[in-house]
Design goal:
heterodimer; A: 364 residues; mainly alpha; 17 helices; B: 90 residues; DNA polymerase, domain 1; cytoplasm (chain B)
Chain lengths: 364, 90
């Protein structure tokens, strides 16, 4: 810290810390720099009286100029690092700085100013810290996100681009496997139109490929995940190069060649393909998606709905027929007799041997 | 979904009018007093601050914490209350 320096050239944070060091009460948070400068001058001026007394007016003028823009202070003050202190910024500069970090700020008024300053500080800290330590993982995350967006949008072009980027960091076997999954993805784009299930499988396989790639990157193991039935011949070669112990279990009969590559006739190895994968996702036995389950339920209901509709029309016809014939008095008498009969039968059903009720009905 | 308190339901049920700041969910006597001291004596003034912050949750929570020292739950209750009121009446 320089021994003698104009307080107008210091940032507000520096002024604050200096005032605190000299046990001076700080002004309210929303005060402008001039207030800090004055306090600084008043209190620390006592110790350096001779040097500052003549420069007071100039300094206040400079402070007024500097409070309106941050570039001035940045040039003069060697202590300020690349990031200007948010407290020094004007409302406009503050808003621009927030916009650079992707934050669309609302009105910056007295009550909101400190909040936005704090937000900018947090963003500056995060951006600095992340750049140094976490750049690799961020790139990875971006790539993962890119790939997943590819899955949703089904654009193989992006996958190619990502694959090109990944070449630098991944080993050759992993590269080829990526090509596999990318190839399977392009097939999936066609097959997805036919059946949603295949698309789901493809997307899952692709995602698992990426997860496995990440793991292998850390553990330096190569993958034995094969894309599903989509590319039968290609899928076998790569896993066999690396996943020998596992393939020995699967194919005990095959003889190892001199190069150590197992070549067998392809049959769908759902067990092997899914085995490394099952820890993260378990398929139900029937492999039925919820959509098909719903459709089955609806179909069940549909069948009965048809029957219900027919029955409804049948009853409606009967009623219509009755309504048409109701003018006829004979039919009315018929109806009455029918109703009596029903009553009689009801009683007879409930209490067998009730002749008294029958007599009652006949009387009516 | 967490259930809302009776205070929340009462506030969101009708336009706030001249309701005091203590009618807000999450703002009790102590916090209400602190807000009134700062000049936020009516619920609509806090609403004004909420709107000036563009209904941003993080900023509003920070503001509430700085202004009256509300804890996380109180911040959340107040934010939810105002947000729902705005959705209904604004």
């Amino acid at each position: 810290m320089p021994f003698v320096e104009d307080p107008a050239h210091l940032s507000i944070a520096r002024l604050k810390s200096d005032l605190l060091a000299h046990n001076v009460a700080l002004p309210p948070a929303a005060s402008k720099k001039e207030v800090y400068v004055e306090l600084h001058l008043k209190n620390i001026d006592q110790k350096n009286a001779a040097e500052f007394s003549s420069d007071d007016e100039e300094e206040t003028r400079e402070a007024a100029r500097e409070s309106s823009g941050f570039e001035h202070s940045r040039d003069k003050d060697p202590e300020v690092t690349q990031m200007p202190d948010p407290s020094d910024l004007t409302d406009e500069y503050l808003r621009e700085a927030l916009l650079k970090h992707g934050v669309k700020a609302g009105p910056i008024v007295a009550s909101t100013r400190t909040l936005y300053e704090n937000k900018l500080r947090k963003l500056l800290l995060h951006s600095n810290g992340d750049d140094e330590l976490y750049s690799d993982s961020e790139e990875e995350q971006e790539k993962r996100d890119d790939i997943e967006s590819v899955l949703e949008e089904q654009k193989p072009e992006e996958a190619k681009k990502i694959k090109g980027e990944n070449d630098k960091t991944f080993s050759i076997t992993q590269m080829v496997q990526e090509m596999e999954s990318r190839g399977s993805l392009s097939d999936c784009t066609v097959k997805e139109l036919n059946s949603s299930r295949v698309g789901e499988h493809c997307s899952r396989s692709y995602r698992f490929a990426m997860n496995d790639l990440d793991k292998s990157r850390s553990t330096d193991q190569s993958l034995y995940h094969t894309p599903k039935d989509v590319h039968p011949p290609r899928g076998m070669k790569l896993p066999q190069e690396s996943g020998k112990p596992i393939l020995k279990d699967l194919f005990p009969d095959t003889k190892p060649t001199t190069t150590g590559i197992y070549v067998t006739p392809r049959r769908p190895i759902k067990g092997a393909a899914q085995r490394p994968v099952q820890y993260s996702y378990s398929y139900p036995d029937t492999l039925v998606s919820p959509v098909t389950l719903e459709r089955r339920e609806v179909e069940r209901r549909l069948v009965s709905i048809h029957i219900q509709i027919l029955f409804f029309f049948f009853v409606a016809c009967i009623l219509f027929y009755i309504y048409v014939n109701v003018q006829d008095s004979t039919v009315l008498a018929l109806l009455d007799s029918f109703s009596h009969c029903f009553d009689k039968e009801g009683w007879a059903f409930l209490q067998p041997g009730t002749e008294g009720t029958q007599a009652v009905c006949k009387q009516d | 979904m967490s259930s809302t308190s009776q205070k929340h339901k009462d506030f969101v049920a009708e336009p706030m009018g001249e309701k005091p700041v203590m009618a807000l969910a999450g703002i009790g006597e102590v916090l209400g007093k602190r807000l009134e001291e700062k000049g936020f004596d009516k619920a609509y003034v806090v609403l004004g601050q909420f709107l000036v912050l563009k209904k941003d949750e993080e900023l509003f929570r920070d503001w509430l914490k700085d202004t009256c020292g509300a804890n996380a739950k109180q911040q959340g209750d107040c934010y939810g209350c105002l947000k729902e009121w705005c959705d209904a009446f604004l």
